[in-house]
Amino acid sequence: MRVLCCLLVVCFTAQSAVARDDTRFFGIQSAMTLGEKKTPIADKHIKFYFGDQPHAEVVERFVKVDALRKTNSFGKSPQDACEWAFLSALLVLREKAIDYGANAVVNIHSYYDKKPFESNEKFECHDGAITTGVALRGSIVTLEE
Questions:
Q1: Cα–Cα separations (whole angstroms), residue 70 to 13, 41, 67, 87
Q2: Which of 69, 61, 50 is nearest to 117 (CA)?
Q3: Long-range contacts of range 26-33, CB-CB < 8 Å, 24 or more positions apart?
Q4: How does pLDDT run across 98-134, given as a tens digit for each residue?
Q5: pTM (2 decimals)?
Q6: What are the phi and psi torsion angles at 26 (to 5°)?
Q7: Cβ neighbours for 60, distance < 8 A, ≥ 6 positions apart
Q8: Residues 131/68, Cβ–Cβ less than 8 Å
Q9: Centroid of chain to Cα 66
């Protein structure tokens, strides 16, 4: 009976260790710089504004868009995995802006598990043993030129 109890404790303990979910925060500018080197995010026609960064007047407001992207954590540092997921989420926002004929995404903020984290400088990332994820929310708009 003791052996069975010990086995159960070991099994449940090992499983919870694998189910890691660390909340981490990384710099937006660092990730954007990485993006320019690895997978260009910037589009001269679509501008990104994080948090409450100032921007031109909104001429037309289309829709709020959520973008959740995950990546494999295996063999990657938490920062590399988080930045890759962040860039992937930005690509989703960019494509939605293009679909609507907009020229910007404003008020971009982290929105993991539908909990907003607004910052002009940092994004929130959830880094696990197997996957890493970033969720962003932003408003698709046309700004005055």
A1: 25, 17, 10, 10
A2: 50
A3: 26/79, 26/82, 26/83, 26/86, 26/122, 26/123, 26/125, 27/121, 27/122, 28/86, 28/119, 28/120, 28/121, 28/122, 28/123, 29/121, 30/83, 31/82, 31/83, 31/86, 31/87, 31/123
A4: 999 999 999 999 999 999 999 999 999 999 989 999 9
A5: 0.83
A6: -130, 160
A7: 102, 141, 142
A8: no
A9: 10
